[in-house]
Amino acid sequence: MATAIQTQFKRDILDGETNEQVTSLLQQNLINLVDLALLMKQAHWNVFGPNFRSIHLQLDEIIATVRGGSDEVAERIAALGVAADGRSCTVAASSDLADYPREFVDVKQTITLVADATKTTIDSLRSAIETLGDLDPISEDMLIAIAGPMEKHLWMLQAQEA
Amino acid sequence: MATAIQTQFKRDILDGETNEQVTSLLQQNLINLVDLALLMKQAHWNVFGPNFRSIHLQLDEIIATVRGGSDEVAERIAALGVAADGRSCTVAASSDLADYPREFVDVKQTITLVADATKTTIDSLRSAIETLGDLDPISEDMLIAIAGPMEKHLWMLQAQEA
Amino acid sequence: MATAIQTQFKRDILDGETNEQVTSLLQQNLINLVDLALLMKQAHWNVFGPNFRSIHLQLDEIIATVRGGSDEVAERIAALGVAADGRSCTVAASSDLADYPREFVDVKQTITLVADATKTTIDSLRSAIETLGDLDPISEDMLIAIAGPMEKHLWMLQAQEA
Amino acid sequence: MATAIQTQFKRDILDGETNEQVTSLLQQNLINLVDLALLMKQAHWNVFGPNFRSIHLQLDEIIATVRGGSDEVAERIAALGVAADGRSCTVAASSDLADYPREFVDVKQTITLVADATKTTIDSLRSAIETLGDLDPISEDMLIAIAGPMEKHLWMLQAQEA
Amino acid sequence: MATAIQTQFKRDILDGETNEQVTSLLQQNLINLVDLALLMKQAHWNVFGPNFRSIHLQLDEIIATVRGGSDEVAERIAALGVAADGRSCTVAASSDLADYPREFVDVKQTITLVADATKTTIDSLRSAIETLGDLDPISEDMLIAIAGPMEKHLWMLQAQEA
Amino acid sequence: MATAIQTQFKRDILDGETNEQVTSLLQQNLINLVDLALLMKQAHWNVFGPNFRSIHLQLDEIIATVRGGSDEVAERIAALGVAADGRSCTVAASSDLADYPREFVDVKQTITLVADATKTTIDSLRSAIETLGDLDPISEDMLIAIAGPMEKHLWMLQAQEA
Amino acid sequence: MATAIQTQFKRDILDGETNEQVTSLLQQNLINLVDLALLMKQAHWNVFGPNFRSIHLQLDEIIATVRGGSDEVAERIAALGVAADGRSCTVAASSDLADYPREFVDVKQTITLVADATKTTIDSLRSAIETLGDLDPISEDMLIAIAGPMEKHLWMLQAQEA
Amino acid sequence: MATAIQTQFKRDILDGETNEQVTSLLQQNLINLVDLALLMKQAHWNVFGPNFRSIHLQLDEIIATVRGGSDEVAERIAALGVAADGRSCTVAASSDLADYPREFVDVKQTITLVADATKTTIDSLRSAIETLGDLDPISEDMLIAIAGPMEKHLWMLQAQEA
Amino acid sequence: MATAIQTQFKRDILDGETNEQVTSLLQQNLINLVDLALLMKQAHWNVFGPNFRSIHLQLDEIIATVRGGSDEVAERIAALGVAADGRSCTVAASSDLADYPREFVDVKQTITLVADATKTTIDSLRSAIETLGDLDPISEDMLIAIAGPMEKHLWMLQAQEA
Amino acid sequence: MATAIQTQFKRDILDGETNEQVTSLLQQNLINLVDLALLMKQAHWNVFGPNFRSIHLQLDEIIATVRGGSDEVAERIAALGVAADGRSCTVAASSDLADYPREFVDVKQTITLVADATKTTIDSLRSAIETLGDLDPISEDMLIAIAGPMEKHLWMLQAQEA
Amino acid sequence: MATAIQTQFKRDILDGETNEQVTSLLQQNLINLVDLALLMKQAHWNVFGPNFRSIHLQLDEIIATVRGGSDEVAERIAALGVAADGRSCTVAASSDLADYPREFVDVKQTITLVADATKTTIDSLRSAIETLGDLDPISEDMLIAIAGPMEKHLWMLQAQEA
Amino acid sequence: MATAIQTQFKRDILDGETNEQVTSLLQQNLINLVDLALLMKQAHWNVFGPNFRSIHLQLDEIIATVRGGSDEVAERIAALGVAADGRSCTVAASSDLADYPREFVDVKQTITLVADATKTTIDSLRSAIETLGDLDPISEDMLIAIAGPMEKHLWMLQAQEA
């Protein structure tokens, strides 16, 4: 299996140190986004109570956004010459998201937990955006384009808590 | 958070013991299917070498099938009154699938690894189908409908190894 | 009007007695499915209260499933050489479903009544599936394919009662 | 079940007496339209003889028109504050349509029976349109919009009898 | 700028006085419809509380109907040779609708305010329909076609208040 | 051409003897389905007489079903590790279907001949379904899913003979 | 009406003072965009002269862009915890756009007036973009994405004046 | 050819004299609409000069409306039991429209001629609508629905003359 | 009206005499195609008897082909610098087609008359194709592409007469 | 079965001898095209080796072209009054194509065999085109339109052999 | 790079000399078509003056036709075994088209220049068509199919000059 | 031709010197993008060898991206008041891209050449992005949006070289 596997590719878009910083920031956000999609599917399946169906459908719309985002980020990492890592073991070990209950969760509690997880993901994106400005404007632009709709989804979740 | 969370719902479609057997079989297959989708995304992002693009596209088609299957299984579990569990920690801990490399993997090796993971998932579905025949024909029928396309995908992967 | 009307056609897919048992089981389920669609339209028009619109839309989705099911069953009866009967007088006289109120019904009460009617219809399908296994696997397969989505709809209704 | 059910809603689009006249005219037409759809499905399933397929398909096109019409009428009744009634028992008891045979019916006879039922439904619509002109132009307009396509369908049925 | 601007065009579809009456009635309804769309966008952006998302989406569906209606009316006025006026200053000065709060508004209050504004718009359409019957049946027909769906939307809003 | 051709592949989904029985049953049904599609195209091109166009179009709808079925069966055979055989020489030599005339055939005769060929194909499917139940439920399920629509098509052909 | 209305929500994405500056800049641009859409509808309805139809259609394309922009801006304001204000009274009182004639306007004059209004809106966006760079890159990015297509529309309007 | 042809069918939707008046009014409008479509195709092919393409496309949009209208009218005549007449000889002999030149016609002249022909057709529709109100509200409603879009097309033609 | 109208344009794709021959051949075929479409609409509206609906629909499919053909021919004439003539007076005076009855016509007779008219149109196209081969291959190719589908339609009409 | 079958129809588009020559040329090409589609399906199911999926998909695209071609040719034969013959026995006996292996075939060998069969089919089409030019330009044109895309498919197959 | 590049492929559809003549004619037309598309994009970007938008859009429609044509021609050359050449240096050096200005060009001048370039391209196609008739009917047919729509576009451009 | 041509338009979005810098940077990138599309079409037509079809299709996807980019850039230049230049002579003279062979090129070599040309184009975009940040954020944002997908395409090409 010697030559079949390679940790890194030689690409010269960014210089070495910058590349490491950029891909490392992207890698953590990839993990959060993959985990957020799993967490939201968990919520989608196990929510119950009045108004159940509305949140059930809304979650699938957010999941589509989140999955689109994780694909963008992973392919950006690969485009920069580094292997992306979105395996279940990595996600379980390194995600920034709080644990989600294993049980059925009612609508109100579901909204709170999902909004918190979304907020954590956005904070991580925001923090990476700040750093990336000086390192790689194309990666920065990509994260901004992911964070925008996420903040809109957050508002639409939070508006239901009020 | 007392009343907001419930481990199980009272539903009378199947009797208690049967229900436990059925949902427990479905739960393990849910884990395998969720993990298979993650593993295939990992492969999709990190494959390299001649013919790269063809396998890159083929993987996304299989992923759509696998995700459709995990949704079907999870909602069946919930329909039987038990909370489904597809969280990253559970998947990482309980999946039947072998580990996938963290690095870039070439086309040939990717096909072998992905075919193996698909075979593992099918074996688990086949074994559940045999047991479910006497317990719940609707769950059995649902797993048959998932296994059929999976075996077709397996053939299309294996045909490339020959 | 002598030759214009015929009670039965000579077809040799199944032998005579089996055919009678199969079509008689299908006929009762046809009646229940036709009545369920009418009952749900009644609910769709007359529901009121907070969250009204969500259940109003959900009911039309279930109705589409139910109507598809009754068409499948009726055409299967005809394909086996017996005339199907879905006329209003037959449905009113022989349906297994409980009566539905003539007035406006609020959201909570609507969900309970509609879930009960769905449960009655599923019980009748389940009971026919058990018998059909040995008589005609194609009719059995058709009823399983109808019962699956109906049980999922039932869960989505019941999850709102919790 | 006290507050969960209400016979009528307070709305002031039309004055009380007018409202009663309008909704009572609409209610009888609702019953006829619901029954016509059931009768045509019966015909759709049980027609036989040369040219069978053409009338089989044509009936489903007319049914789509009729179902659209009954939905419009029922929601208009509700919009005027009165509960609509399209339940199987009401339809079986109060429909203006003649009985339809329980057996298989040949193409020629099917066309005659279905055309007669359509004519009965149109007569009832026409008679309501005359009265509604002075009571509620929006309800009148809606029935005209239903009657027009019905008269065209009648022509297309009768043209086959000639 | 002398010839670039014209208050009126010579068209002979209706005689002078009739034309003035018809277009003046249409003009006031145009103002109400334009204002209603703005008011509903305001509500769409600032609604909050449980069930928020359902009303958020429902409002956009009504807005599509209302905008379609204002376009129809304005182009009818122009087709009759008179310039339509839907400018913000005219709308603010002459609309029949009550003021809407500048703040965030909860779901219940939003439904009441939006239903009231819809009712005001319908009353204005109904009153114009009565007068237009003798003046211009095509304009009358157009307003009936706008009022019908508006009354149905009103019912779907009010059903949530009950 | 030594290594370029292989009669069989090593796959371990089913044990050897079972695999041979299953694929041999599937192979005969593949031949019948391929021949049925050719026979129906022949009928589609050469039918004549009143009502010609209706049967001309109906035949193309059935052909689409039959071709879908033969593709399913052939790919199932390959998925089980055996080469499928749908070549013209094999089909001409081993088909169960009766010969079809070389001439133009009128509508009535066409319907009889096509219905007979369909019946032959269904008998072969039914007989395989019975045997496959104990050998491979996934192959059995696939043939049931093909036979169901075929029996419905048969009814729609026979209903025109009555 | 006490608790039903709230001027502001507690959100912690931006600190207080920054939030006020950002939302105040966005609010003025919201007003301009809403007014621009109304002004262009006015132009769309009342333009006349040779080539009328081409500009009539072009205006509806620009309106779609402008409405999309105002929706983006308003929902961003809400996402930042402040109520957006797009009511007719606010738009009429605070818009930066010059008055538009109440009469029919010929094609040449229409293009000039509409281009001027577009230019005013762009200047306001450009000025906000400059300030927002240091305050909130996501809001800045959103306004850049709105200004780009607006400048292209401006060119397509101006190219006709030459 | 004796029985193959029939001048009229026995139908009882309207009484005899009313039927004759209604269908005679519809017949003249049918002729005008068929001729208008031919005249506009003539214009569509032979227009020339600056701005040629815009009017060339606009004419095809109006033709689609006109053809839809003539189909509606002819099928209404048939639905009332009388044969419609849209043959070239009848159209050439009885149309109310003025002659159109045989040569190429420039844009300005084309617009004038086409607008005049549209005006003639509308006058004929308007005159029939007035009479039909008391005879058959469904035919009246149909002509109103045709005249509305025609008047809008007329405005869009005339706006280019101004 | 002096300069607004022009009999011919100077174009140099073909030399003068050739151009006259080509456009004169095309002009007669244009007349036949326009008349054929009118004749088929007449048949579409007034056909009656068993199987009515099938021929009613078939005629509209042929009409779409014929109208596409007349558009192609007329725009080819104009592209060659000569005004096309498809006005009702010209069509009525110069068409090669036999007269069609004014009354209702039964299905059998309708098929015969429509097939005859189609044959006449094809003969005229065939004759022009022979001459055009040496004059203008692009016009020849266009008529071949029109004649092919027309001959197929003729077969489908004649197959019903047999 | 006497009158139900007819070898030939009297049609007068071409004279007798020409007709025989034309339809006999078309008949051989029909056989080749039907056989080519069967051969390519065989290849589609049984190909294996690296790059398998790409050729698997490409074959289905070519099959769609080939089937479209055989339908065109068969319906042209019928349109000329002769029964087309595409039955499996005729195809097996008279096809010009070389035998295809019964086993699994690797990608390289598959491409060679499929390209050879395509070349044989093209040669037969080319040879018929040469003869048809003087006999029937419409049939010639049809075969040219089939041969063009076939030669392009051949190139795309051969380019992979290089 | 020895074997990686090849000037010609051995294919036996046409004999050697014919092949050279055919591909050489096609190559010059390829160059003209590629250059025409570039020239029209240049015009599309830099046209100005009243009516700008109409010609701006029309040019993109013609470009789509021209690009489709150049793709057809280039792939035909390759299908005949010769490498096509559409590189910028070849196009700049060998195109038959006159130079186009580097500046903004007004509408009238743009139409003249674009029509001239289209005429040059058509002349080249016409001249090749004449020669190809005896060499390769499939290539001839392809160029006719390209020239036809080009001549129609030319008419639509020239009609605006008149 | 005096006034028909203009080198520059007066527009005041950016000041003079900035405008010159911005448009000059955009102009060079326009040339590269136009040349890249031509080069890739050349590759698309003349590639050969195993795996040919996959790269053939992939190139057309990249071309769609590149053409979209060149249109964006050219219209931005025009929107800033300067004429864009994408003529074949300019592209041949000023492109930064290396020459491409005139012959057939095998898959491996094609990928290398196309990847190099893409890299050159990206370097030029990157260099312009750096300078534009301070001059015009809207132009900068547009180039970033073009460079992103280009870098992803580059990765997908390079991954095949590994």
From TrEMBL, chains A, B, C, D, E, F, G, H, I, J, K, L:
GO terms for molecular function: ferric iron binding; oxidoreductase activity. InterPro entries: DPS_DNA-bd (IPR002177), Ferritin-like (IPR012347), Ferritin-like_SF (IPR009078), Ferritin_DPS_dom (IPR008331). It holds the Pfam family Ferritin. The keyword Oxidoreductase applies. Its EC number is 1.16.-.-. Keywords: Oxidoreductase. It is an enzyme of class 1 (oxidoreductase). Residues 25-160 form the Ferritin/DPS domain. Belongs to the Dps family. This is DNA protection during starvation protein. It comes from Stieleria neptunia. The gene is dps.
